[in-house]
Amino acid sequence: MQTSSDRHEYPAHWEADVVLRDGGTARIRPITVDDAERLVSFYEQVSDESKYYRFFAPYPRLSAKDVHRFTHHDFVDRVGLAATIGGEFIATVRYDRIGADGTPASAPADEAEVAFLVQDAHQGRGVASALLEHIGAVARERGIRRFAAEVLPANNKMIKVFTDAGYTQKRSFEDGVVRLEFGLEPTDRSMAVQYAREQRAEARSVQRLLAPGSVAVVGAGRAPGGVGRSVLDHLRDTGFTGRLYAVNKALGEGEEELGGVAAFRSVRDIDGPVDLAVVAVPAERVPEIVTECGEHGVQGLVVVSAGYAESGPDGRERQRALVRQARSYGMRIIGPNAFGVINTSPDVRLNASLAPHMPRPGRIGLFAQSGAIGVALLSRLHRRGGGVTGVTGVSTFVSSGNRADVSGNDVLQYWYEDPDTDVVLMYLESIGNPRKFTRLARRTAAAKPLVVVQGARHGAGPRGHAVRATRLPHATVSALLRQAGVIRVDTITELVDTGLLLARQPLPAGPRVAILGNSESLGLLTYDACLAEGLRPHPPLDLTTAASAADFHAALSRALADDTSDAVVVTAIPAVGEGSVGDAALAQALRSAAAATPSKPVLVVHVELGGLAEALSAATSTAPQAPAPVPPTRATPAPRPRADTASATAPPPPEGAHLIPAYPAAERAVRALAQAVAYGQWRRDAADPGKVPEYDDIDERGAAALIEGLLSRGQGLTLGTDETCDLLGTYGIHVHRALPAPDPGTAAEAARTLGHPVALKATAPHLRHRADLGGVRLDLADEEQLRRAYSELTELFGAPEELRPVVQRMAPRGVDTVVRAVIDPAAGAVLSFGLAGPPSQLLGDMAHRLIPVTDRDATSLVRSIRTAPLLFGWRGSAPVDTPALEELMLRVSRLVHDHPEVVAVTLEPVVVAPRGVSVLGASVRLAPPPARDDLGPRTLPAY
User: Fold this and answer.
1) With 488 labelled, which of 12, 599, 748, 785 sits at a CA distance of 20 to 30 A?
2) How far apart are CA 282 and CA 369, in angstroms?
3) CA-to-CA distance for 941 and 433, rounded, in angstroms?
């Protein structure tokens, strides 16, 4: 630790784990006086060329003076950070604050020189880029706004680190040295670079877990059964294409195989690299195994062992220690308490899970935090009878257990660019970082559908999940997810129903639905279901129970060719009698008609037509498949036949057949279609998200100065009336001032100052915004009316000291609304809107958008509430000025986005008149901004 003469305590919040370009991890932390030996050892492993590039001269070793200088920092004007793996340095970066003349300086000087040194063995892994992000964030925290770096022209790697970072730069060349100067304020380009690097690194870290070249199962039992041995058997029986090893500490002398797989007593004994280790030993033995794996160079772990955070406080601490230990070796973890991972790619064939069978390869990526739900989802995807048919298979499956490290965010990064995944299905019981999840979801949903069901919506999440606390209700979080393009469903049945439709059918161009079939009643049920889901169905076409396969083909072809329909739902019931249509013939007729017009989705609602369902889905079942052909040997026994193998071998449809999902109930089919319609509209809207407007009258610097002065009084405060009006005024938000009226005379004086007509309001907490209780008197045209109203209020509700009356100039009549903005610790900045009073308070009729809000967001926000018709001339009333309301919300959004110290804003009521808006009440709360925010450097969740 630092000595007493240092100016600041050790900044523990600068410590962070990061994912590097190749998917490995490293820890970044401040350098202290205790690191002298580590620094010397690190420097000895750096090549002479790298030393020359750092010091511009041969510099074979560090002197004692150098070591002292590079390990003694005040954490303000002199800061050094190190990237470490296994506790040892692999790279360092430091800055020294300088003045205008280039000499050492202190604040208020806001420039610093920065320099890096990366061990040669770790160059090319993105270490320097990660360090630049973190040293930049540290510098901004300490009041430094610019970095300067001097680099030799031949040091192209380091020049590229600076130029690729995306900051605004100035470059010069003098005395044989390239001098780079750049500001540290994040720019759109620097954030885009950071997010792109984050995506590549995290996707690569997941890819190393899902496509390993070699796997070791640690804890595989000597006899069949048990968790470890089951995983080993599943890997072997499904034909894993890489090298497979079993590890069992209790192996006897001379035992070299378990179940035909090469076996060892320790990971250290394996002759060759191990990419992935599946850990299935008691929790107390896991640290020993992690050490073995880390020292052997294992890249990642799947920990199926239980006994961690799900078991209580001791287990939670055990889980924290597990993550810290694994990351210290550069490894990532799925789990603990995980069900496992599956990759159906024929090049991998990985079933490192407790699932006994490999699902058929397909285009759906599946993520489940719960193992039990993961099993249920896999089962539903491959089940034929009694459920959804017309199915497709799975590309990859991840069940994360306690998700102590790898989470749904990481897997989303992988699936975003995975060419084998077209649709993503996720079962989430908690969202550890909603702000990041919505950012990733928005990007993913723009490329491929993302369907999510949330468990534990009405209570605490699972005990094993460490999540940030959020003050937002579940309905608000769901609304924010939908804004990001997430298809939110309520059950795993809906998750599968929607996912299967999106996996094999095009997105509908709109909500118009054609309905046809051989049952009038089933058609009417489908029609009613469409109306209930907000779709626009055409009257059902009844083909009668005598309809033939040719009749279905002709009717479906006409419906698909009709420009007034965007999707078609076909209903079918069993027909009885000679000449009735057969299942296979009907399936062929529907597939061929759909294939002729592949631009519109087709769904089938069937009743007790198992044969039709099977015929429609014959080529796409995810029923368990036979393992890849492998010659039986002692090391790889011939697979045992299973009773259900026949169900997986239904004859395939003709080449090029159009695959149609079929549903056992109209409501399920229509609900899935409605989700697809809404998602299709979101995709079209997302192509033009709008822009954040600029307003010439916004005084951003003036607001910053006000905020700085106000916060100098304390850590957090709610502003007074005058301060609130002044701050909001810098952003063009003008509040009708309310003057206190502690007695009738003062009230009369206030009215003369403001000008009649005025309103008299009681602002006591139990009467505020409650006009229905009689605490407000409006349109007081003169002093006599004002004094009479004052007397009535005091007689009804008590003394002025209790009522806290105020006088306010009358605003034009209109619709009372409320606009709120809040910075939630988990979800980030959120803008909310609704009508004031019972609609928002009693019915919860509020709409929400993430900040910063674009002009399109503001327009949709106004129209998203159920009571929106009141703003647009409902029942002959005058429409109000919604463009002015939208501008007000955009200004509030800008204020909160530009100044993270503004943690809460409430404007209530906001009266929206036919011309203009009037803000009659406002409150603002300030607090110091967090040291790190969403604009900060890449980090993994802290443990």
Assistant:
1) 599
2) 21
3) 9
Buried b / exposed e over 366-405, threshold 16 CB at 10 Å, is bbbbbbebbbbbbebbbbbeebbbbbbbbbbbbbbbbbbb
pTM of the predicted structure, to 2 decimals: 0.84
Residues contacting 118, CB < 8 A, separation 6+: 50, 90, 91, 127, 128
Is it true that the peptide bond before 852 is cis, omega within 30 degrees of 0?
yes
Identity at 733, one-letter amino acid code = I
Nearest Cα to Cα of residue 819 among 810, 830, 828: 830
Query: What secondary structure letter does DSSP report for 319?
Result: H
> Half-sphere exposure of residue 406, counting CA atoms within 13 Å on the CB side?
38
Give dist(CA 840, CA 838) in Å, integer.
Answer: 6
Q: With CA atoms as reference, report the closest residue to 636 among 625, 644, 624, 628.
A: 628
Q: How far apart are CA 632 and CA 639, in angstroms?
A: 8
Closest of 141, 205, 336 to residue 940, by C-alpha? 205
Strands (DSSP E) found in 16-107: 16-19, 25-30, 78-85, 88-98
Report the candidate in 382, 266, 371 with the shortest Cα–Cα distance to residue 648: 382
Which DSSP helix (H) or strand (E) runs through 847? strand 846-850
User: Which tokens in the block code for residue 913?
Assistant: 């008149």
The pLDDT assigned to 460 comes to: 52
Angle at Cα 455 formed by Cα 674 and Cα 410, nearest 5°? 90
And the tokens for 466? 């460490």
What 8-state DSSP symbol labels residue 735? B
Q: 264 vs 214, 516, 576, 768, CA distance in Å?
A: 14, 63, 64, 74
Q: What is the pLDDT of residue 44?
A: 95
| pLDDT reported for residue 688 | 86
pLDDT of res. 238: 94
Type of residue at 101: D
- Element (H or E) spanning 541, and its range? strand 541-542
Q: Using only C-alpha atoms, what is the Rg of the chain?
A: 33
Strand partners, 303: 279
CA atoms within a 13 Å half-sphere pointing along the CA-CB vector of 255: 18
Q: Are the C-beta atoms of residues 322 and 338 closer than 8 Å to each other?
A: no
Q: What is the C-alpha to C-alpha distance for residues 550 and 774, in angstroms, rounded to an integer?
A: 71
Q: Could you give the C-alpha distances from 378 to 409, 622, 625, 642, in angstroms and in order?
A: 21, 8, 13, 18
Residue 313 dihedral angles phi and psi, to the nearest 5°: -55, -45
Q: How far is CA 258 from the centre of its chain?
A: 42
Residue ranges of the chain with pLDDT lower than 70? 1-7, 383-392, 456-472, 575-581, 608-658, 715, 769-772, 826, 930-935, 943
Nearest residue to 131 via CA among 169, 93, 75: 93
The string of DSSP codes covering 462-531 is -TT-------S-HHHHHHHHHHTT-EEESSHHHHHHHHHHHHHSPPPSSSEEEEEES-HHHHHHHHHHHH
Q: Which helix (H) or strand (E) holds 760?
A: strand 758-762
Cα→Cα distances 915→206, 354, 463, 785, Å? 55, 65, 53, 28
Cα separation of 789 and 709, whole Å? 40
Best CA proximity match to 892, nearest among 688, 721, 695, 690:
695
Residue 444 contacts residue 415 (beta carbons within 8 Å): yes
Pick from 448, 443, 442: which is nearest to 482 by CA? 442
Which of 610, 510, 593, 491 is closest to 552 using CA atoms?
Answer: 593
Distances from the Cα of 530 to the Cα of 184, 524, 671, angstroms:
53, 10, 8
Distance from the Cα of residue 175 to its chain's centroid: 49
Quick one: angle between helices 700-711 and 882-898, nearest 10?
Answer: 60
User: What tokens does 549 get?
Assistant: 């396969």
- Whether the CB-CB separation of 622 and 382 falls below 8 Å is answered with yes
